[in-house]
Amino acid sequence: MAKPSSIMLPLETEAPNFLLKDANSNSFYTFDELKGSKGTLVIFICNHCPYVHHAIDEIVMIANDYRVQGLGVFAISSSDISLFPQDRPEKMADFAMENRIDFPYLFDADQEVANKFNATYTPDFFLFDSLDKLFYHGQLDDSRPGNGISLSGSDLRNAIDALIYNRSLAETQKPSMGCAIQLK
């Protein structure tokens, strides 16, 4: 049986704006307030997904490595909390603290933002350039829970490096695989 993978949003798609509450600070943010000078990484995650648990340390390292270089980074949970109560905002704050997530972790209660991004799985990575155009939408790397491949973040890191250092992105963008976002 094939593992679920994300639906590829066309490159050059403009980043949708939104207003979402951050579970870490209880402040509301828009895309424009969180974007970086060199580009912006939007990561769809949730607390319950084993694919997110598998990758979270590498996700946090990537955020820490690149935010100092002008990359805006934030995560969004669009989980249906009636199905997954462990993804409630107060649990998001706990998850962020446990995993040293010190970038905004936003809650998309009505899943409107997930629909705007065409995000369907967690974790899912959307990298926008400084003009808010989609530059990369794909996987972290080839590692998956239980497949024996070490986490490296190579696919995402290569895309971020290409963006920051103004290089073309030659590789095919492989879609993310993971837990389905249960859209209402």
Helices, strands, pairings?
Layout lengths: L19 E3 L5 E2 L1 H4 L4 E6 L5 H18 L3 E7 L11 H10 L6 E3 L4 H6 L3 E2 L1 E6 L4 E5 L15 H11 L14 E2 L4
Parallel strand pairs: 3-4, 4-5
Antiparallel strand pairs: 1-2, 1-5, 3-7, 6-9, 7-8
Structural summary, described in words:
- With 184 residues, the protein is α+β, with helices and mostly antiparallel strands.
- The strands form 2 sheets. Strands 2-1-5-4-3-7-8 form a 7-stranded mixed β-sheet. Strands 6-9 form a two-stranded antiparallel sheet.
- The longest helix has 18 residues, at 50-67.
- The protein has helices spanning 31-34, 50-67, 89-98, 112-117, 154-164; strands spanning 20-22, 28-29, 39-44, 71-77, 105-107, 121-122, 124-129, 134-138, 179-180.
- It has a single domain, classed as Glutaredoxin.
- It contains 5 helices and 9 strands.
How would you briefly describe this protein structure?
The protein has one domain: Glutaredoxin (3-Layer(aba) Sandwich), CATH 3.40.30.10. Strand 3 (39-44), helix 2 (50-67) and strand 4 form a beta-alpha-beta unit. The protein has helices at 31-34, 50-67, 89-98, 112-117, 154-164; strands at residues 20-22, 28-29, 39-44, 71-77, 105-107, 121-122, 124-129, 134-138, 179-180.
Question: Do you know the CATH architecture?
Answer: 3-Layer(aba) Sandwich
Which structural category fits the helices and strands? alpha+beta
Low-confidence stretches: none
Strand content: 15-25%
Side by side, the strands of the main sheet go 2-1-5-4-3-7-8
Number of domains: 1
* Number of helical elements: 5
Work out the helicity level.
Answer: 25-40%
The CATH homologous superfamily: Glutaredoxin
CATH topology category name: Glutaredoxin
Give the overall form. globular
H/E series: EEHEHEHEHEEEHE
Multimeric status of the protein: single chain
From the N-terminal CA to the C-terminal CA, the straight-line distance is 25 Å
